[in-house]
Amino acid sequence: MVRFAKQEDLERVNELRKMVNDLHVGGKPEVFKPGFNEELKNYIYEIREDPNKDIVVAELDGVVCGYAVVAYISRPENPFMNERRFVDIDEFGVDAAFRRRGVATEMVEFVKKLTKEKGYDRLELNMWEFNRDALAFYEEVGFETYRRYMEIKL
Ligand SMILES: CC(C)(COP(=O)(O)OP(=O)(O)OC[C@H]1O[C@@H](n2cnc3c(N)ncnc32)[C@H](O)[C@@H]1OP(=O)(O)O)[C@@H](O)C(=O)NCCC(=O)NCCS
Fold first, then answer.
1. What is the Cα–Cα distance from 66 to 58, expressed in whole angstroms?
2. Residue whose C-alpha is closest to residue 44's, from 35, 34, 54, 52
3. Which long-range contacts (CB under 8 A, 24 or more apart) does 140-145 make?
4. Which atom of ligand 1 is nearest the CA belonging to 134?
5. Angle, nearest 10°, between helix axes 38-49 and 10-27?
6. What domains, with CATH codes, occur in the chain?
7. Ligand 1 center from residue 93 Cα (angstroms)
8. What is the C-alpha separation between 45 and 55, in angstroms, rounded?
9. For ligand 1, is residue 100 a contact (CB within 6 Å)?
10. What average pLDDT is seen over the chain?
11. pLDDT tens string 7-33
């Protein structure tokens, strides 16, 4: 079952956020701060108060085992680009003990429905290239790469 997070879910959501943060620290240690600092912990409470964001959770066997943070984005037109309106998946993850049971797929379906209900017609996300599992999942549920970040380390 996928639903919006309640205040009392947020501690558990932070356990899941820590797992995702640890994965990012392992894969890109020069970018991500190790541990799960207080600021990062408290940020989820700010997100819940933000009218332009939502926190979604998935429950399986009565356990909150997945979460997504989404942001409703409107960027005004500029000399280069037309106005852009889309929903962005800022954070996303499923507890390792609950993977490959369709939890993430169900969360994406929920977010797609939410996107339409809120009057947006595009959902996007960005991800780190090392994270091949996430890429395989996102492609499986229909996301396509439309832009790339590239780097040279010197
Ligand atoms: C990526 C992630 C969210 C997938 O969650 P999940 O609940 O296991 O995904 P689902 O069960 O809905 O998977 C649906 C399909 O996606 C594909 N898929 C999912 N995980 C995959 C993996 N590790 N490798 C290859 N394909 C994968 C498969 O086709 C799968 O169907 P199948 O199980 O019948 O083969 C989960 O592995 C995760 O939380 N990873 C760590 C956190 C993370 O990377 N978050 C994203 C940060 S940008």
1. 5
2. 54
3. 140/105, 141/104, 141/105, 141/108
4. 1
5. 130
6. 2-140 (3.40.630.30)
7. 9
8. 10
9. yes
10. 97
11. 999 999 999 999 999 999 999 999 999
